[in-house]
Amino acid sequence: MTPLGHPSDAPHSRARLVVVGNGMAAMRTVEEMLATAPQRYDITVFGAEPHGNYNRILLSSVLAGEKRIADITLHAPEWYAANGIDLRAGDPVVSIDRAHRVVRSQGGAEVGYDRLLIATGSNPVVLPVPGHTLDGVVAFRAISDVERMIAAAREACRAVVIGGGLLGLEAANGLLQQGMKVSVVHHIDMLMERQLDKSASTLLQQALEAKGIRFVMSARTAQIVGDDRVSAVRFEDGREVAADLVVMTAGVRPNIELARQAGLHCERGIVVDDALQTSDPHIYAVGECVQHRGATFGLVAPIWDQARVCGAQLAGVDVAPYEQKSTATRLKVTGVNLFSAGDFKGGPGTEDMVLRDPRRAVYKRLVLERDRMIGAVLFGDVDDGAWYADLIRNQTDISRLRGYLLFGQTLCESKAA
Question: For a Cys-Cys bond, which of 86, 189, 271, 316 suits 44, CB 3.0-4.6 Å?
């Protein structure tokens, strides 16, 4: 889709771009636009958090004590000033008047726009069980959540993390590094079921147990116990685990309420086309809040692709439409090497290639469909993960490499030479 030109009735010499959200997706899109058309807009950015933009992916490293907040800051206030951006941090937008092209903030500001970019991200899922509002129950989404967890670790010793996905395991590792006794509760019998097969999940659980993390599997939370403050987590089968801190990492949902109230087309996320344009041609959306061709997004790679396309659209530059690609997952836990990409489940017409080395705790599973690789799961030895991901993403013909694929890029390239 060709981007709209500047409205003829714009009262300024430059068009007005308002950005709702000050996270990674929003600012990456602004960066992409500025690289091509730095003088095109007067830019106002509204952010819910009272900070500049930071790398949310590295919050687990801050929790683990491996990084400081300053280390994960992407754009300090000086960057906004240098680029002429009016940053309204800590003042989220509460309504969008599409008829008059005006946003209104919680603090009472009203700012007009010619183009609006929505990047409201996602909200953590907090299980609505009795006791979920008790003191000591936190999500794991923002700097403030990490600060609360670190403060709790100074005064308490027992943490329960609800959710055995990627975020939950990184939270558990961080709390362990803070000196807490940590239990992870998961509703089924395998960890990271969206990214791993059963074999890799078992190896992962064993590696994390060796670090000192306890697991309560196939357990559904029925209640968070406590008077004023949490004291335990109770499950549907009657079991309990003592807790001074409960961290909810049971998933996220696209934050679409603002867009929905504005009358934009929303399903699970804000529905966008291949240009990242919403049902209103003056409004674009990127990141975890969007839904594109039925899919929603939580990993950084597709969001960077969205930012590139949307930034070009806002800059008035023709660009190839946004296209979903295979993405890869890594777990950020020191000493645990894990990688997955593509369709690792396979199905009719697919072929598995598997390497197991119990002595070294190495597991590799490659999923092939005819002469293409469609998925990979690696545990223990992930050195070739990026190469496998490229083979999957590029749909490379691997017919000449079949006999060597499990042994990695170096051997494959030497045999193919």
Answer: 86
Q: What is the pLDDT of residues 366-401, one digit of tens each?
A: 999 999 999 999 999 999 999 999 999 999 999 999
Q: Which range is least confidently modeled, 4-18, 175-189, 223-237? A: 4-18
Let me know if domain 137-248 sits in CATH 3.50.50.60: yes
* Interatomic CA distance for residues 279 and 230, integer angstroms: 44
Domain at 15-122+252-315: CATH architecture? 3-Layer(bba) Sandwich (3.50)
Residue 176 three-state SS:
helix
CA of residue 409 relative to chain centroid, distance: 29
pLDDT at 7 over 50: no
pTM of the model: 0.92
DSSP characters over 25-51: HHHHHHHHHHHH-TTSEEEEEEESSSS
- CA atoms of 158 and 307, how far apart (whole Å): 40
Asked if domains 137-248 and 337-416 share a fold, the reply is no
Residue identified by tokens 């867009």 is 259
What stretches of 288-369 adopt beta strand conformation (E)?
290-292, 328-330, 338-342, 350-357, 362-369
